[in-house]
Amino acid sequence: MYSAENKIIDAHWPRYTENSTIDKEKRLKLCYLKYKFEGTINDNKPILNLIFSHATGMNKSIWKYYIKRLKKLAFMKDDYPFVIGSMITVDHVQHGDSGVLNKDNLGTEFNWTDGARDVIKVVMEERSNDDAFKKGNNILIGHSFGGFLSVYAAFLEPLLFQDIITIEPVIYGRHSDPSAAPPPEGYKTMGNSGLLSALARGIKDEFDSKEEAVEWLRRTSFFSPFESELLEYFISDEVIQRPDGKWTTKISKEQHLTCYKGYDSSVPMGMSSVQFIKNRVLHVVGGSATWNPPETTNFLIKNLENSDRIIVPNGTHTVPEEQPDDVLKIIKSRLTETGFSLQEPIALTAKPKL
Amino acid sequence: MYSAENKIIDAHWPRYTENSTIDKEKRLKLCYLKYKFEGTINDNKPILNLIFSHATGMNKSIWKYYIKRLKKLAFMKDDYPFVIGSMITVDHVQHGDSGVLNKDNLGTEFNWTDGARDVIKVVMEERSNDDAFKKGNNILIGHSFGGFLSVYAAFLEPLLFQDIITIEPVIYGRHSDPSAAPPPEGYKTMGNSGLLSALARGIKDEFDSKEEAVEWLRRTSFFSPFESELLEYFISDEVIQRPDGKWTTKISKEQHLTCYKGYDSSVPMGMSSVQFIKNRVLHVVGGSATWNPPETTNFLIKNLENSDRIIVPNGTHTVPEEQPDDVLKIIKSRLTETGFSLQEPIALTAKPKL
């Protein structure tokens, strides 16, 4: 009942800094996979389109685990107060298939707000070509770096998005709290904290055989604790052979680190944006996660006007990949809530008088 | 040597709030006048394109005084280290010709950041259709509300703009300083300060004859202190006859106040954005101006990384309309400086190492 189509569009242009690309005028590409509901939607339930954004180093296929299960809701649509129209999984510019297409044009800097502009570009593209998409409501779902993108996209274009589910978003840094001036003790950036070098030691992008690459991803990499079915989807979309015969990941080590390094310039912008966001936001937190400073969750709940928080017991920072069933349950329940709220007659907005 | 062309394009979509328009899907229009250099540019001087944004209640034609004099520089190009490619004067969505086209679709709210998106839309439109524009460097020049737009446009798309001249920009409010929490004493919005009602009493948009309208604008309105040639350009682009025979200003009183009222939602966003702007900004201040809180100027100089300030002696908040020769002199001198800096060989950017 859902068709699947690989799409390639131009990424947002211009990028945020001169060093974002090698050639300033050349357009980066954005690859995404669109699953589109092909049945007839003849009831009055709201149509929801889901746009998924992966974390640093991952790719669109980590969401396949979710897509497979969410597709089934189409057969049970009487049980739910919504219909899923399209589901879109994006490979962000240096990741997955986009990373392969862009490899000769990616620069040494990546400001994450460009990722938010790319998400907006995808939605605008779909709206201009797909009537069903135009009628639908857009729900952004993003993890970690992808959680940042989802929130910042709502800051940039609030009317495009009817709900945001942000899972362990990286959008708060103790050292970059704009309300704390001068910087508190321990002020540091990812660049000078030693974290980037530690990450660099854990990343590998050259292998002699496919088996070696797969084994490394499965057993040694940051990704090894992922739920096994989900991990296999990720790996099968990530390992490719280079022209010289060697095997590699679609994201290069250099671009993987460039994306991490974007933290320093991006997180303060994210922190400063949240006070202006009035969209509905669900903030999903891993109960045992330590990647984000512990203040993150209160900061978001306090500053996002219309937000809720839900904690996944025992969840780590990669909870959507390690405990996908728990996160899927949360997503389904949030979509149900969103479906009901969109079915309510629109309140007669009291137009403010001058 | 310069052609003049009236252009109409779709304004940025989506707008910032549901109440920005009556029909959410309908596109607002944006009218602008483009003066394009038609001679051959065969030296190696940088081409500068100037994009002018007017203040609340004004229209594109207040810049005619400037355009007329800046055009003459084309005959004296040996004296200047730049060539002016195009000059664009915009009627923002509720103003001038745009206001007339949009009158049945404008809503009850206007967030000024939409004006910044519209400026970006104009530049992107010109870049896609005009090769000379593509090669040029874009200089934003904006007054008051238009000064806000120019600064915020640089926050949204830093690489599109090579210089910003912001004259008495409204981008700081004592009551909305995000670093001061809780709000300091005297916390108030334009809506509750009484200022909006006072402004409402000073605005009129219905007249029995053309002469009555012109006389009111010339002698009674906020605009009466404008330099006389400049005032006549403004008036001749502003007074029109309605289908019912009455005469009116192109901006309606309601939309004039809606734009003022946008202050409350927009200024905090502007204040929060400036810390991230690395573009060159020249901040022109009226030496006797009282519209902005006196802290505005220090706030901008401190927070805009690459900014300069210049004070016009005896200037009020409407200094570009009251003392246009003084402001013109500042603009010419800044363009000269920009021309020289763009002629310098581009420094070999040290690409940051991971």
Number of domains of chain A: 1
Largest sheet of chain A: 8 strands, mixed
Listing every helix as H and every strand as E from the N terminus to the C terminus, the arrangement of chain A reads EEEHEHHHEHEHHHEEHHEHEHH
Instruction: Report the β-strand fraction of chain A as a percent range.
Output: 15-25%
Q: What is the radius of gyration of chain A?
A: 20 Å
Given the C-alpha coordinates, what overall shape of chain A results?
globular
Specify the CATH class of chain A: Alpha Beta
Find the structural class of chain A using helix and strand composition.
Answer: alpha/beta
Roughly what is the average pLDDT of chain A, rounded to an integer? Answer: 92
Short recap of the structure:
The structure is a homodimer of 354-residue chains. In chain A, 36% of the residues lie in helices and 19% in strands.
